[in-house]
Amino acid sequence: MEYEVRPDEETSTLLGARVTVVDAAALLTAAQAGPVELLASTGFPAPVREVRCTVRADGDVHRFEAYLRVDGPGSTVGLLALGLAGPVGLLLAQRLAARTPDGLAAGVGLLAAEAGRRLGLRPAGTALAEPPRDRAGQDVLRAAEELGLRPQVSQDDAALTVRAAVPSAEITPAHLRAMVGVVLQAVRELAGDGPELTVLRGRSYTVGRRVATAAPARSATVTLDQVGGLADVVARFREVAVSFRHPQVMARWGARRPQGILLYGPPGTGKTMLARALANEIGADFVEIRTPEILDKYLGGSERNIKRIFREARAYRRPTVMLFDEFDSIISYAGAGGDAASQAVNAVAGIFKQEMNTLFEANPDVIVVATTNFPQRVDASLIRSGRFDLKIAIPAPDETGRAEIITKMIRELIDRHERPGFRMFAADVDPVALAVDTPGLTGADLREVLRRVQLAKAMREATVGAPAAPISQDDLREAVAGLRRG
Predict the structure, then answer these.
(1) How confident is the model at residue 83 (pLDDT cuts 50, 70, 90)?
(2) Sheet holding 61-70: strands in order across?
(3) pLDDT at 62
(4) Helices assigned H by DSSP within 167-285
(5) Number of C-beta neighbours around residue 255 at 10 A
(6) For residues 455 and 467, what is the distance between their CA atoms, to the nearest angstrom?
(7) Global confidence as pTM
(8) Looking at residues 199-204, what average pLDDT do you find?
(9) Strands 260-264 and 366-372
(10) In the prediction, which pLDDT does 89 show?
(11) What is the DSSP pairing of strand 9-14 with strand 17-22?
């Protein structure tokens, strides 16, 4: 992890789109600790609804995987009806022309033939009959080929997956840019773009992190890329997301993906944020169940509320993450006491168990996430495997984790607020040094430090009527000291 708050950026035009690559070398290094999101956006032309591209180190190989979701069943296989070559065509035509005597393979037929014509490829042993109609697409594939990047493509009715692998000893930022080019070429194919490069024109994409163009509520837009200091947890959540993106593979193996996740640890460590980030990683709806929605002072009311919540969950038609925050306050330890309060607790816990037992079979697209600061207060039978398959501790961050969290938070603020002529943070800001000065602080504490110093700067400018100086390292240290004083 690099701790520069303003990492190197390189912007270029690729297939009509403006593409900014942020600190490519650091991204490839970070992939050694787990999957790194390269491209995540919904700003693509129809019928493409979602594109996600990751890179991760697997032994001595870096593996790229891109997942493109399209609207409507049959969207990918129906492209030929529109007179298009389809995504598989452009990516495989070059392979086919080199591997087979006539440039085609059984089962591909017109798809590859049309792709070959668009790319200007020829069957083996023949002359080039016509110039390529899609020279830009040809250039992208040639660049990938020269780097040894050989994409493998698979597709089903609603999604396209592109995979490639490069030996870790050979990988460079150029491989990253080439893979992004291949992904954008697949987007063009799905959208039916022509040689004029119109469908991506005017669009901007950032590789490595998402650039905010507005300031929506942070909790609604948080991604796993924004989670700092929890590399192992983020990696496990990305695995859960992969299982949701490939339901046919799960079904072929009879695999049941984890649908119950318990997150436990001290307050302020990011448990709720992780649940929201998981929903965004999957492209799922997010439903938070709060304590007042369940607990009822009238006899039997809490049980009825739980039944209603799970009845609604079984009817969800989209992937959904349900969050039971502060789970211990909703369902405390089901003790053996004989008083009315203990009996009520036992009744609530019993109903919850029954509903969890049937939910996942009734609706496999629902994930239940429960968070608690006090796992010892929750009955073990409630959170056994089968109900909560993943039980993940979320500890307070160590020094390295704090440095990563501070870096990500400052980068997020820079992305949102810095404009030409306005610099928010001074050049002396050092996340590593600040991490040394903040032992015991959680992610929530660090965000509060930034909030205080932002408010102080804004109030100073509003009061004095002149621009305040950028936030410095001393400003941050002073805010930390103020937080400790209370």
Answers:
(1) very low
(2) 36-41, 48-58, 61-70, 159-167, 152-155
(3) 95
(4) 173-191, 218-221, 231-245, 247-253, 271-282
(5) 10
(6) 14
(7) 0.65
(8) 90
(9) parallel
(10) 46
(11) antiparallel
